[in-house]
Amino acid sequence: xxxxxxxxxxxxxxxxxxxxxxxxxxxxxxxxxxxxxxxxxxxxxxxxxxxxxxxxxxxxxxxxxxxxxxxxxxxxxxxxxxxxxxxxxxxxxxxxxxx
Amino acid sequence: xxxxxxxxxxxxxxxxxxxxxxxxxxxxxxxxxxxxxxxxxxxxxxxxxxxxxxxxxxxxxxxxxxxxxxxxxxxxxxxxxxxxxxxxxxxxxxxxxxxxxxxxxxxxxxxxxxxxxxxxxxxxxxxxxxxxxxxxxxxxxxxxxxxxxxxxxxxxxxxxxxxxxxxxxxxxxxxxxxxxxxxxxxxxxxxxxxxxxxxxxxxxxxxxxxxxxxxxxxxxxxxxxxxxxxxxxxxxxxxxxxxxxxxxxxxxxxxxxxxxxxxxxxxxxxxxxxxxxxxxxxxxxxxxxxxxxxxxxxxxxxxxxxxxxxxxxxxxxxxxxxxxxxxxxxxxxxxxxxxxxxxxxxxxxxxxxxxxxxxxxxxxxxxxxxxxxxxxxxxxxxxxxxxxxxxxxxxxxxxxxxxxxxxxxxxxxxxxxxxxxxxxxxxxxxxxxxxxxxxxxxxxxxxxxxxxxxxxxxxxxxxxxxxxxxxxxxxxxxxxxxxxxxxxxxxxxxxxxxxxxxxxxxxxxxxxxxxxxxxxxxxxxxxxxxxxxxxxxxxxxxxxxxxxxxxxxxxxxxxxxxxxxxxxxxxxxxxxxxxxxxxxxxxxxxxxxxxxxxxxxxxxxxxxxxxxxxxxxxxxxxxxxxxxxxxxxxxxxxxxxxxxxxxxxxxxxxxxxxxxxxxxxxxxxxxxxxxxxxxxxxxxxxxxxxxxxxxxxxxxxxxxxxxxxxxxxxxxxxxxxxxxxxxxxxxxxxxxxxxxxxxxxxxxxxxxxxxxxxxxxxxxxxxxxxxxxxxxxxxxxxxxxxxxxxxxx
Lengths: 99, 793
Description:
- The complex is a heterodimer of chains A (about 100) and B (about 800).
- Chain A has about 100 residues and is mainly α.
- In chain A, about 80% of the residues lie in helices and about 0% in strands.
- Chain A has helices spanning about 5-25, 25-50, 55-85.
- Chain B has helices spanning about 20-25, 25-40, 50-80, 110-135, 140-160, 165-180, 190-225, 235-240, 250-265, 275, 285-290, 295-305, 305-310, 320-335, 345-365, 370-395, 405, 415-430, 435-450, 455-480, 510-525, 530-545, 560-565, 635-660, 670, 675-685, 690-760, 770-790; strands at about 90-95, 100-110.
- At the A-B interface, helix 1 of A face helix 28 of B.
């Protein structure tokens, strides 16, 4: 079965996503990285669903896609507003806390 | 005695009818209870000040009671001739404590139904009467609230399935009696009378509590294992008392304890002294509580737990028992006291005491049904007499109850009241064919037939006295020349008894309002009362004539309705294994035909005798003892009628001579003749019983006790209190200095410091850099995942 390959793909995508979230300064790229993480999870779910012959994983993946779409909508709106106020979408410049 | 043939007679058994009203008879007390709370909460805001709720709730109870009576009659009709008509029982668990279940529930049988109907009926009529009688009273709403609560309590007691609910109803009645006697408490005499009634009855009530506890501990094991009922259940106690199990000493003591409660509640000698004083309450209260319903609660208790008294006191045995002796004393002394009263309500109060003595005498002598029948008839004619007295004071004698000062010659002014009074008086005296004849004569007859000749003679003597004092009261009130207020004099205020002038005015707030009321009275003089007063009186008068026909023994067996409907059948009941406690029992087989017991006194020929009461049933249980019924003979009835007429005639002649013509041979006899003087003084001072109680008991017992309690309070309790205070103070000082300041505050400060340090340590993490947050999040997730993997492998 191809399960291990699917899982490997999921793991690679996940790692790329995590790297993007941590290392990227551009807010749009961070959002895209989050999408990668979510889709890697989707691949994992589908892989296990195929292996177990159950429809649960498919249902859950569809649900995650819907949630991800909503999340991107909200995230892009935030980015747009940040850009209008500051003329920049660099996350480093957003910090005002001095811990 | 062993020749009793148990015949398995399955064909005799038939299923018993039920019905909605029988199953839901418990609503009868519930409705007035709700009514009471509504009156208390919203009464004053309503257009009729809450009285409409009282009347409506009692009318609803009356409908429920009549429905239950109708369906009970159908139930009895559906039973076989010798079949036990099992009561309609429903129980609910009230609370549980230590494995003992306290249940409340309904127990509907013939006795419950008849008293239920009487109480609901008279309560309704008296409430209607009070609408007019108490109009404009200061505490009008509270009066109706208390009256409604009383009815609820009495109805609850009547349908009670167990002694707990019975006790509850009993005490509610005592409380309402106190509140209603003291309705016009601004007057010191009224509140003293209320206190006297309350404490006297409470003295007896201790016996009820003791009796219930004794019966529970004695009977609980037997009832639980044999019937699946608790030791509080009336059915359980009844069956236990007739099972041959009980220790004779225990059941004797329990019966005496219960009877002490009856002495207090039902005004028997020597605790009868509260009842005449209770007349300080408004007349509707006297009519409802202190003549027809509440005071028969003691009689009802004896009738309800009759097997306990039957076995415990050996009723129908060869010697006389304590119930009969107390009852006979009560009959005679109360009737004699009624002769020296000038207050019309006090005459009726002593008459009530005396009639309650008749009921007790009947129960003590084994005449169960006649006694219950006398409850039934007495309620109607005595309530009617009290309402007549109220009508007179309301409309004719200017709120006075003094027959000698303010009455006389009223028969022309008050035709309806007069006719009702006469009818009820004849019923009370026991003149054929009025209702009292049938019940009272049956009691006397049965007492004699059961072999107690002495008590039969006392009963006949009591009948003579009853006829005589009622004739005297009738003459003073309605005949002769009008006196005082009845003659139209309105300036005699100061001479009225204090409580009388309050009637119907309440405490009159100002002299001005009183004067207007006077004006209203003055222009008419003595006159007939309004329809709200006369209609209830007339209805009761009709029943005073007709109620006797419900058990008209002289007309033959077919007229003995109450015997069929009310008297529990003394048959052996063989029951299946009962369900758990709280479930109603279903009795399957009964119907025992037994040969007559030869040794039973005056056992009638042709009547089958059941062993219940005379010996323990070998199989199954009994719920009622077998009692005898005397054969009616016109010769005996004519003898008692002759005695009654002699009483009426003698009293009439004496009254005319003494009060009418002022015959010189009679006037002042108590000053001239030594014997008469002693007798009069004894009666006028009520046998010095009040003196004994107040000077003897209260002064010598309560006084020293209160002084001792004061000394104890000052020296012992206060000393302990001071010492405790000093110790507490020094302990508090130590606690403040060492524990509060050092330990508690130290802990609080230390925790605050620790929090501050922790905050400073983790402060740098809040950098505001999103990437760093993300890194921390994923690192944490990775560590968590690692932990999971390690834990799961």
